[in-house]
Design goal:
heterodimer; A: alpha+beta; about 40% helix
């Protein structure tokens, strides 16, 4: 009797809670790796690179250390673009949110990606509009959002550049600007703002959820 | 030695945390704190059972959270007794969660690790840092309590089998 009940109880618990294990993992759980792992990896790659470089001089032109090229320049560009345009009082954007459809079509065409504009109203941020920016290998889109207190966020979207490795969700700080960024095969995204990390994490998680189905 | 080793266990940690804590946000916060702590302490992990190690970290984080919040467990138990649930098979998620919340946290942990993670007594003992005997007694008390709440039998005082 009691053993039978235990089996039923277990089945009931599994039935109700197993689906949780299938839910998509929230982006915030993909943590930044501890820095020493990065250093250890870089050191190993340098060693391997040197070894290969010494043993096979023909490979010297493309040493494997190139693989460690950081994704940080992308985040840095996003942070600088934020710093330039976010304080703009009269011209924060080229095309404002009233013409959202046109904005998205135009930027998608120029950047060469099918862009989506995440809705951040639940996080307290409304779309102001967007603009086109130059990037090292082509045009970049910048969308700007603002909350009721006038705090601004920018979402910087571009095709990934050569030499920039894929990257999970990462956080960097460039002066007063905090940036969450991630780079997948087709697209790099960076969300920048002068916000505390917790708030930016919350918004970035929402952006990530909406853009990575 | 990499965060990639930990990622495959996130679904397990989330499933367990959801059942342990009850609400989604609270559970995911518990998972998040666990992951951050695991990354900080990763150099302390000795190759072995990574799952048990992660669950032991979650246990420590959970206990700290309970202490910080001073959760009044007794209140929930009283409410629960006032509203028994008709049967195990008809129990829905709210009933089940209410029944789980009625267990003392240390019983809930043991019951859930065994049911959801299929952990052996030895695994549970490692994950929670308690002796095997304690695992067994908490498991049987926890199951007994769940059974009484989910499947209340009419009291049969004095009924004896006479041969």
């Amino acid at each position: 009797m009691s053993e039978h009940d235990d089996v039923r109880m277990k089945a009931l618990l599994k039935k109700h809670f197993d689906p949780v294990a299938l839910e998509p993992i929230p982006a915030r759980m993909y943590l930044r790796r501890p820095r020493w792992i990065g250093y250890a990896k870089a050191a190993m790659l340098v060693t391997v690179g040197l070894a290969i470089g010494l043993v096979l001089p023909s490979l010297r032109s493309t040493p494997p250390v190139a693989a460690t090229a950081s994704a940080a320049p992308f985040a840095m560009r996003a942070a600088r673009a934020h710093a330039v345009y976010a304080p703009e009082v009269r011209h924060p954007v080229e095309v404002d949110a009233a013409q959202q459809e046109h904005l998205v079509k135009w930027l998608s065409k120029r950047v060469g990606l099918e862009l989506k504009v995440p809705v951040l109203a639940p996080e307290g941020f409304e779309l102001l509009g967007g603009r086109l920016l130059p990037g090292p290998e082509g045009p970049v889109a910048q969308f700007m959002y603002q909350d009721s207190g006038g705090k601004r966020l920018t979402l910087y979207v571009s095709k990934p550049n050569k030499g920039e490795s894929l990257s999970a969700f990462r956080f960097v700080r460039e002066g007063p600007v905090s940036v969450f960024y991630w780079i997948d095969r087709d697209c790099g995204y960076a969300l920048s703002g002068e916000l505390d990390r917790a708030t930016l994490t919350r918004v970035a998680t929402s952006v990530y959820k909406q853009l990575e189905p | 030695m990499d965060y990639d080793l930990i990622v495959p266990y996130i679904p397990n940690l989330r499933r367990y945390a959801r059942a342990l804590v009850g609400d989604r946000d609270g559970a995911d916060d518990l998972v998040q704190d666990t992951l951050e702590r695991a990354v900080r302490k990763f150099h302390l992990w000795r190759p072995g059972d990574l799952r048990a190690w992660l669950f032991s970290i979650m246990h420590n984080v959970f206990v700290n959270q309970l202490k910080a919040r001073k959760i009044p467990v007794d209140l929930e138990i009283d409410e629960l007794i006032a509203a028994p649930i008709s049967s195990v098979s008809s129990a829905d998620i709210q009933d089940l969660q209410r029944a789980l919340n009625g267990l003392a946290p240390e019983q809930r942990e043991v019951v859930l690790l065994v049911a959801l993670e299929d952990m052996s007594y030895a695994d549970v003992s490692r994950a929670l840092g308690i002796p095997m005997g304690t695992v067994m007694s908490r498991l049987s008390r926890g199951r007994e309590r769940l059974r009484r709440v989910l499947n209340p039998e009419p009291a049969r005082p004095g009924l004896k089998v006479v041969t």
